[in-house]
Amino acid sequence: MVSCTSAFHFHSSCSGFPRPQQQFVNHRKDLQLLFPFEIPIFLRRLHSFHNVTSSLPLKKIANMLHSAHREYDPFPLASRYGIQPSELISGVCCVQCGFQGMTSIYNGWGCQQCGHVDEIAHVQAIVDYFMLIGYRISNKECRHFLRLDNIQKVKRLLGQLRIPFEGEKRGRFYIANLKVIRELHDSKGPKVTK
To answer: Please, how many CA atoms are within 13 Å of residue 113, restricted to the half-sphere of its CB?
Structure first.
């Protein structure tokens, strides 16, 4: 026989036993003894569960949570992890072989390593810039990052991507946000023509 000290108590009038093989004698008439398989049934039958709060405060809390929600924005990653932009490897990456440093050719970008030609390889490089370095890029910064010298070609590439901008001529900056980055990342991109 086992005393009630080996039982665990989870309700004022109920005790459960960890092993169904135990034998016991219940001397208390106000105590219900349960075996493990009976506990879930007992808990479902309890009517002591009730709403802690009314629906009006819950709606207010839900509205506050909804209005305070902000999409997680981990960018730019370089500053988050203490990496200087000068430490990053710039250039357009070949999707075929992974070579970093495709060159601009008439019909897009050519890989010196494997010979692959990609019309839109620059799109991922620009997305990488926005995710790594910052949400603003000038023509000069883009040329440096893409390893491209042609001012007009970079202007055309950025214009074809329809990235919002502010300023004119040398003071123009193309400005992205999470939505722009997502659209650029998910898009196939425009065909680049020279």
So the answer is: 11
43: its two tokens:
């808990």
The domain 77-186 having CATH identifier 2.40.30: the answer here is: no
Neighbour tally for 184: CB within 10 Å: 18
Task: Please classify residue 46 by burial: count the beta carbons closer than 10 Å to its beta carbon, then call 0-12 exposed, 13-18 middle and 19+ buried.
Answer: exposed
User: How many CA within 13 A on the CB side of residue 32?
Assistant: 11
Residue with tokens 């491209």: 148
Q: Write out the two tokens for 26.
A: 């219940």
Within the chain, all domains assigned CATH 1.10.10 are found at 77-186
pLDDT in tens, 89-101: 999 999 989 999 8
Position 192 pLDDT exceeds 70: no
Q: Which of 105, 102, 193 is nearest to 156 (CA)?
A: 193
Contact 156, 139 (CB under 8 A): no
- The answer to whether the CB of 28 falls within 8 A of the CB of 8 is no
Write the pLDDT tens digit of every residue in 134-172: 999 999 999 999 999 999 999 999 988 888 888 888 888
In this model, does residue 53 exceed pLDDT 60? yes
